[in-house]
Amino acid sequence: MIFFIKLLLAHLIGDFILQPTNWVIHKEENKVKSKYLYFHTLIHFLLIILLLWDLGSWKLALVISISHYVIDLVKLYASKWIKKKSVLFFTDQALHLIVIYICAFHGNLKEQTSIMFQHLDWVLITAVVFVTFPAAVMMGKLLEGFSDQIQIDHKSLPNAGKYIGIIERLFVLLFIIIGRWEVIGLLITAKSVFRFNDLKENNNRKLTEYILIGTLLSFGIAILTGYLFISMRGGL
């Protein structure tokens, strides 16, 4: 596993620390003709050799570096058809990680993958997945009758409320799992402080009640999920 961690560290340093913004811009503009594309590839090769501290691993470093070059090049040209940079970014990173994983465990890839899946905490994964989008959809249905009566006269980020709810439920679930129930109170207080100015400016009783119901429902779902998780793990 430490071998995989070193390869991952080399990737993180090469992609996020030793790649200035002007290199990224130059690559986007010049693509295969960009000299920084090749500098970037070389840096990854040298980082792998350095962190593994083994010149005998040059073949592995070469394979990963060349694959990195190919993936980055495909991403640069794919930007013509895929306008969302976030999609390109996460797809690019996922492909890099897959290559690193395969190279790290190429000797026993099937066995290592099987062991990894066997040790996954499926109860935890189910709880985490539930408090994200499934819980958001459930809350939307439960609050549907109230949301139709709310008039919001100020601009807001698209789906901001949904993502705020997802993040806060993940935090609540985490605090319950690690046994820090008191932090949930601080989280509710922090959210109330941030919401105070909006409610004060709008002076809208219906909006205040809607936000209060939504907040309590969101926290309630997360707390119930955390309680069920602990119960299933035999912690209660």
Automatic annotation (TrEMBL):
InterPro entries: Phage_phiKZ_Orf197. The chain crosses the membrane at residues 36-53, 87-107, 119-139, 170-190, 210-230. This is DUF3307 domain-containing protein. Pfam families: DUF3307. Keywords: Membrane, Transmembrane, Transmembrane helix.
